[in-house]
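Record 1 of the preview.
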Amino acid sequence: MLRAAASALLLVLLAGCTATGTASPGTVQTSTGDTSPDALALTDDLARLEVSVLQHREDYSIRGLQIQVTNNGERTVTVESAEFTSDYFAEPVSAPSAPSRVFAGATTDFKVRLPDPNCDTDSDTNTNTNTDINTVEASVTLTISDEDTPGTGAESATFTPADPFGSLELVHAQDCSREAFEAVAAITVAEQLRVVDVAGQPVAQLDLTVTPTSAAGEVHLESIGSTVLLQQPEGELRELDLAFTATSEPHTVTLSFTPARCDPHVVAEDKVGTLLPFHVDAGAFTDATFTLPSSDEVKQQFYNYVALACGW
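->
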């Protein structure tokens, strides 16, 4: 009776979750085939979990991703492992924060660092937008155990996670537009920031060099924009409109910046202020954008410059 009732409940509760080794969506089987009450209880727990993927602001510069696990059940469970897989990336990756408990009625994030991109997929897009933000080329496999006996009697299931903010499509488009651009023209950012005086005001300058790789094709660097921390000097519009082919000469661009704001907390809480936004056309990626992170040294130099320019 217990087994039949539990199995019927699972068929109703599980949506978008497929157990490891099970092809039919909407069903869960215990990974061990164990039909004991404890195993069936864990399978019930799995059916009451919801899984999403998203990025927080601090994830952008480090290519981080949050596996968000919501426990809609009445029992606290221990997530022994959380593995993320997607055709958009070269290999699976596991969350180092597991094992960790997910309390009943609560949500816990498991951070992963995204692997190298895989741009040889049929779902490559030519823009940085995704009209169906809940369509995701990914899966998350969770292995859980009872809170009271972590590490023993574990059960697993594979979920198709929700992607409420279209994070995977955005990361994929940025990864692959950059890869397409740098296949033809590689970008090198200087390791030293200069501070020059312009009309009595300090202005930060950073050089970057675009060097053709001799590969076939043509790419266009349309512009490099401002950030929440750094803006182009007043009166300047950094529209570059540079084209690169295999026969082009290397080209160095000097980027000038002034502080976008002078609130001290802007630096103290900065997550994305030193990510340089590139607007490009590269192969199939037209009107595309990607960000290039500053090195740790240049990032600190930018912070020092903002402090100097703002008079802190």
